[in-house]
What does this fold into?
Amino acid sequence: MVALSPSRRLRRTPFSEGVEAAGVKAYTVYNHMLLPTVFRSVEEDYRHLKSAVQVWDVACERQVELRGPDAGRLMQMLTPRDLRGVNPGRCLYVPIVDETGGMLNDPVAIKLAEDRWWISIADSDLLYWVKGIVHGWRLDVLVDEPDVSPLAVQGPLADDLMARVFGDSVRDVRFFRYSIFDFEGYPLVIARSGYSKQGGFEIYVSPGSIGMALWNALMAEGRDLDVRAGCPNLIERIEGGLLSYGNDMTRENTPHECGLGKFCDTHSAIGCVGRDALLRVAIEGPVRQIRPLEIEGEAVPACDRLWPVVDGDRRVGHVSSAAWSPDFGTNVAIGMVRMTHWDPGTRLEVETPAGRRPVLVRDTFWI
Amino acid sequence: MVALSPSRRLRRTPFSEGVEAAGVKAYTVYNHMLLPTVFRSVEEDYRHLKSAVQVWDVACERQVELRGPDAGRLMQMLTPRDLRGVNPGRCLYVPIVDETGGMLNDPVAIKLAEDRWWISIADSDLLYWVKGIVHGWRLDVLVDEPDVSPLAVQGPLADDLMARVFGDSVRDVRFFRYSIFDFEGYPLVIARSGYSKQGGFEIYVSPGSIGMALWNALMAEGRDLDVRAGCPNLIERIEGGLLSYGNDMTRENTPHECGLGKFCDTHSAIGCVGRDALLRVAIEGPVRQIRPLEIEGEAVPACDRLWPVVDGDRRVGHVSSAAWSPDFGTNVAIGMVRMTHWDPGTRLEVETPAGRRPVLVRDTFWI
It folds into this structure.
């Protein structure tokens, strides 16, 4: 791997000091911010994530805050998911689409109050789209990036570690709900959520100045749980079918192509700017869709570009993410396949840098 | 330096193959795309840039294309620079501001026709802001990211190399103008511009499929000119006072704070969404502004966060970019300083990771 040149433009986080002390080996850049990708090795981090507990610097999940009388209306303009009846205390995975139904981001939205939302974004400057919409539609809402930096605690022992720092009541937080917990006098939003299938929490740390105190408290309290600094793990997220904006989907794709049709209430999400376009898609259905794909043979190299999926000479899709899974003894992958070839059990081929490989369309992800 | 993890989300370019063959040592990420930062060493690349000619993969300068009857009106909504009287054939450096006058990007806009512009963007998803404005204001204009990837040819021998590939008439292209030149049957926009002070061109390569053919032609024709793969050079760009969005300015700053007041015609740029806010700034003037700063002592480490500039105990500014300049035998830096301390000749101190250092406010950049 080549090196990453440091600059202010690739923003550090409130937890960077802890990440560096833990010996981070590689980063990616996400929302103009450093996101760790490897500590010991991707495989060793994976084993540990599945057996213990990790603290993740995911400050790069920046928040877009909507505040004001039109916040609710604006939030519904952004997504085809029907938000009526959603109460404060909930987190929702919401596809965000443009007027053509193209995916702009796939964040988790947090309803803080009737007139206040946080959108915890994937890797695109959603703030710019939202600000443009607000200006053009003259909405009464303030839009900004607040000083909020998520810190995730993930793994089977996450509840135990969190209970030590925030008290036993943190165990009662249900999936995709949040409650407010105190840390050093600051009220923090803590949700049961996170970018793994191993369970855990996301702490919306604010202000950033308490970041290292919280990091250190988690590390100190979790010593006997073998707590470690970790990060979203490529292998585990593919096994679990967790999509990555920019990798597995872009502005070219509709939510339906991404398998996110269940989050699109195109009949009732009145006001969503992409509603008309998506109503059409909902009626006809997508002609290609994301699928779990199993690539046979030895471990594939890093997937840094689309790998064509072919049926003989005919291109019928692509792979966008892939990794060797030690637990499943195969290459797990995420890709998009045309309708004509997307049935589970279909055998195709994929052109990897290591040559053409047999690939199997699966019914479900691995975990 | 730590490693950069490859993924599709960090997009490759039409020239990546050439960049890799040339032995790129480090990247940054810019508009979700790979931007090389080092080939031999930053200092060796710097020497070579100042004495020969380099070919730069700056495909990460993505284009936002405006096309349609409202393209001109939209372009003026985006910037406080007065665009009346601008004819096709021109390139313009245009601050782009939001409704509060905060900088969203500092691109070069290229007027292709009365109803067609390209905006060659710095590192933020300007497309999202523009699409939001277009939707909210119901403008008759198509906005997209076309298949256009800039390739820069920079250095004192740039004219000689370009003439060999595109003919002698390329020498007649004036600064910040463009003409159309043929390559393998494709008409390419070629402008005399680029992110260095050494002179040269930017070729707007389209389609990307001819990228490597052009790269190889430039390398083959320039062998006796010692042409090399290069990239924007940290030292040279600071010496020349070339600002970097995300490093030296952010959404927090007005153009006036960035020394870009000369590109703000707040009295005549009717329609610019940030005009009212900037009119206020233009009347009162900014209270802090970008300045060339000379940091005394040995070479400073990489500037990966703001370094406070202080007068005793009082914070009066910050450094945002810094590097050791072999040619000037000092650390050259870009920073922002408060009005009370911004006069040339003012002596202050800066808190670097290598300790507190004397710093001098200069009148002008170095080249």
